[in-house]
Design brief:
The complex is a heterodimer.
Chain A: H1 10-24, H2 29-37, H3 43-62, H4 73-91, H5 93-97, H6 106-117, H7 133-148, H8 150-157, H9 165-172, H10 186-213, H11 222-233, H12 250-263, H13 267-274, H14 279-283, H15 286-308, H16 314-329, H17 344-353, H18 369-387, E1 391-392, E2 396-397, E3 400-401, H19 404-435, H20 441-452, H21 473-487, H22 491-497, H23 499-502
Antiparallel strand pairs in A: 2-3
Helix pairs in contact in A: 1-3, 1-4, 2-7, 4-6, 4-9, 4-22, 6-7, 6-21, 7-11, 8-10, 10-11, 10-12, 10-13, 11-12, 12-16, 15-16, 15-17, 16-17, 19-20, 19-21, 20-21
Chain B: E1 2-4, E2 18-22, H1 26-35, E3 40-45, H2 48-57, E4 61-64, H3 70-75, E5 83-86, H4 91-104, E6 108-112, H5 116-123, E7 131-133, H6 135-146, E8 152-158, E9 163-169, E10 193-200, E11 203-206, E12 218-223, H7 225-236, E13 245-248, H8 252-263, E14 268-272, H9 275-284, E15 289-292, H10 298-303, E16 311-314, H11 319-331, E17 337-340, H12 346-353, E18 357-359, H13 361-374, H14 376-383, E19 389-395, E20 416-422, E21 425-427, E22 440-446, H15 447-456
Parallel strand pairs in B: 1-18, 2-3, 2-5, 3-4, 5-6, 6-7, 13-14, 13-16, 14-15, 16-17, 17-18
Antiparallel strand pairs in B: 8-9, 9-12, 10-11, 10-12, 19-22, 20-21, 20-22
Helix pairs in contact in B: 1-13, 6-8, 6-13, 13-14
Classes of the chains: A mainly alpha, B alpha/beta.
Amino acid sequence: VRTAPRGVDVGSAFDLVGGVLKWVGGAFLVPAAVAVGYGEAAWPFLVSAVITVGCGLALDQITGEKRGAAVGPRESFLVVALIWLLVPVFGALPFLIGDVPQLSRPVDAYFESVSGFTATGATVLTDIEALDQAMLFWRQFTHWLGGMGIIILAVAVLPRLRVGGRQLLQSELAGPTEIERFSTTIRQTARRLWTLYVGLTVVAILALAVVGWTGMDDAMTPFQAVSHAMSVIALGGFSSKNDSAAAFVPLTQYLLLLFMILAGVNFLRLYRLLVQRQVDVVRTDEELRLYGAFLVLGSALIITELVAGDFAQGEEAVRTGMFQAVAIMSTTGFATADYTLWGPLAIMTLLLLMFVGASAGSTGGSIKVVRHLLLFKLVRRELDSSVHREIVRPITANGVAVEERSLRSMVVFVLLYLLTFAIGALALLLDARFGGRELTAFEAIGASAACVGNVGPAFGFAGAFGSYAPMSDLSTVVLTALMWLGRMEIIPVAVLLARTYWRG
Amino acid sequence: MARLGGPSCDFPTLAHMRIVVLGAGHVGAAVVEALYEEHDITVIDTDARRLAPLADRYDVHTVEGNGATKSVLRQAGVEDLDLLIACSPNENANLVAAMLVKKLSHAKVLVRASSMEYLEAWREREIDVDFMVSSELETANAILGLVGVPAARQTDVFADGRVQVVEYDVPRDAPPGPVIGRPLREAELPQESRVVAIIRGDRMVPARGDERIEPGDRVILVASPAAARAWSEVISGEAKTVDDIVVFGCGQMGRTIARVLLERDIRVRLVDSNEARARDAAEELHEARVFNASAFDADFLARERIGAGTAAVFALNDDAKNLFAGVLAELQGVHLTIALTHDPRAVDVYDRAGLDMALNPRQVVAEELVRFAHDPRIRQIAMLEGDRFEILDLTVRPESELAGRKLDELPHTGSVIGAIIRGGTVLFPHGADELRPGDRVIIFVESERASLVERVL
């Protein structure tokens, strides 16, 4: 006889995690095929696949009899946290058991894997091109898998997630999705998201490949086209080139720029525009307008600095300025120039853009544009109500009133986000002090902001073409935790830390 | 003291009819009062206690039961019915009864509703009833008239909304100005608009150049949306001064009043002491400023400078509250206080207390229903449908004998070309403009001439 769980039903949470892991194992077959194609060793991926599927099955076994398919809203927090914690563990296996000297230590391999799955794009590699093609491909592929979300994919395809999928989807889909009116079932929403995601990726691959085939960009081989398309649509930032986007001609950079802007839009809106042809939905979208405004403002400030400070001129200033503003704000993290050499106005703008982020419901990280929009409206309401005490003024997004509860949780999120960022920066500085290494305050701020925001590159040694390799192991762990927290938008983890979560 | 409402009997009476009135509340009673002498009336209500006084006072049949059921309607003699007036406070029951009567007999049906959605669906002819009226909307329009903004009775749209057919009631006290009281050819009419008819009393006056718009007239225009707004200002003559109206009470009535005012670009402040109601209103009406405060809170009234508003409307759920709040607002310096009543006798109480206007929404709606019952055509002028006037949307055939002629040269028959859509652009033509083959024209015609016009063009 089954007893009703007291408190959290940890068993069924692990059961679900096991179920998802079984399927994640299949993902290794793709890089294995790439390895075979390039005549490289496929066995690291096959072994990883076996281990992952084995662990998934084992979790299934340990948790005993099937405890009913559904997980409650309470368990979904645990499921999300565990999946984002465990999937990168298995994702790091190929780096460890394969021949990758730069990632031979578990701390580094896990960092690289978390950075991949969270679509951050921070790397501890110093010579990217030294990796095998299949390993490079796997790095890019982790971006692509994590970008739209493994759980959303699971909701879309796994029959057992028909029940309880809403909480899972909402806890993984970036941004406050309460304000989104799901007019379809959760499963259909998840499928739409992934359909669009796959579609956009295919378009990006084709666009980049055409540039390569027609000889307009010799560096853009089919392999690079696939690698960068997966990275750009996931707003990740890993590049299979040491020089990131600087390895390509301006035309390719413009294409990447375009795809970054596109992938930074709410996918639910994008679906309505591209698939359902509802132009009005997009034209009147308040978040989209602010997104555009941030992009223009950020680009303008950087271009001003580039031209006035004589870092670049003419078309180059416009291209690199826009590219960098978009790459940082959308939390991609590609680079066409070493922005760490630019003047303070540009550097400061980039740092602030790290806190903007892309739109809710996109593949980007950070605070997200819609939260800035709502915060701005909250400020206006506070000012209004300090003069007119009795005013009743609901905060609306796209003409729909946002519940006060959602607003409260939004404010709490932003505060937790800033707190996490501050603690992260302090932890890095503390570690550097006691480890006797050089780390400036700005480098610590940049690294913390870039990791919690899932941006990737920061400033100083971890800049545009740099690497997080100089960080100590402890700092690497801190940064890994920041990426993990940032991708899950902190609250699901914070809930797990609350005592009430575990009580009956 | 202006009083609106009160059954009016100054309409020509039609032949003896068999009428069923659904609902024996205030509205039903007012309707019965106005119609019982000439017609054979049966009243249906679920509550016998409401039926008894009506049966005692007037010579009417009564049926107790749910009027939205076939059995009760049969009991009321639906087979040989001429007219159903469904005026219970429950709009859904009214609609169901109307649908049933439409199926079971050939009677005309009049429905009292309150939702804007139903009214809009009816205007778009998706709900098959002959007349629909809402206390809320009629009251709101009456308030527009009271504060000096002409109420647009009806708007029909053509050409994707670029051409509107609008009717305005010119207020009776409208002062002569650049438009009112001047011959049309000399009047400074807003651009992109054309007066197609003037209705004076129950008479249609063709809008010739030597005709004048006078106070109390109803004007039918074909205009662009911008011009329709400009007309609103022109007719009231004081649109600029009507700004900022404070509505107390965020119920269905208060919200409808606020919405109608907001649609005229008048700023509205809404006040309700119930937090949930205030929030609902704020979510529904984005442009309104909504306050969660008591209408009896003098400090609040002073702090928010309620006295600086053009007018205050009291739509609270209790006459006594309306009275107290109204007098308090007067003390705060509000120039025009308009209070709604639930009990008809409150009108005298408000009057005695010094409130400026009293409006009884139930009487307003009863009056509309009675007007229609007396003579459907009068309302149908306003509706621009039925047997007197029509708006036609036609394309001029190349072989039409009128093609190529100037509008001045066309025969004068009372038909007016209000707008021409030529190659995607909308023209509001003058006499010197020419009619061309392929033009799409919006024409106001007498219905009996409609087929002739269709043939000639």
